[in-house]
Specification:
Length: 154
């Protein structure tokens, strides 16, 4: 006992010198749960929110609401960005969806071609306006009326 106390005192002195504690001794038994854990307060809900926890309905509640009140079961249409996700039941649905998608693609391509043509026309118009402005400036410098080419010396 005396030796153990001497060793413990020696360890405490060394710890004080190094100012770093030694790790706690390992527990003798391994357990599944942390015995020292006392729980947390959990998430604090914002009272201004409309959504309540567990607003989902069971199948029985949905069937009761539908059969008694005749109101439709609430559901939302699935969308991927702004495109409605199709419900495909057979091959004709696949073909119809392919045609709709192809039509949408053709519309987008036509829109892009029109935009490119409009930009080219605007650039050409801007270039023509710039050329006219340069001609007016040159005419002002030479003293000739605008649109009339200056006479060349022969």
């Amino acid at each position: 006992m005396a030796k153990q106390k001497d060793l413990e005192e020696e360890i405490k002195e060394i710890e004080q010198e190094l100012d770093t504690p030694t790790p706690a001794p390992l527990k003798r038994f391994a357990v599944q749960f942390n015995i020292d854990y006392h729980g947390t307060n959990g998430k604090i809900m914002d009272p201004d929110r409309i959504t309540q926890p567990d607003m989902s309905l069971t199948v029985r509640q949905l069937v009761d609401r539908y059969t008694r009140a005749g109101e439709p079961i609430p559901n939302k249409d699935p969308y991927y960005f702004d495109i409605k996700v199709p419900v495909i039941k057979d091959l004709t649905d696949v073909e119809r969806f392919r045609e709709e998608t192809q039509q949408r693609l053709d519309d987008v391509n036509a829109y892009l071609k029109q935009e490119i043509a409009d930009r080219k026309a605007a650039e050409e118009e801007a270039a023509a306006d710039k050329l006219k402005a340069e001609q007016r400036e040159q005419a002002r410098e030479t003293g000739t009326p605008a649109g009339v080419p200056p006479e060349e010396d022969k």
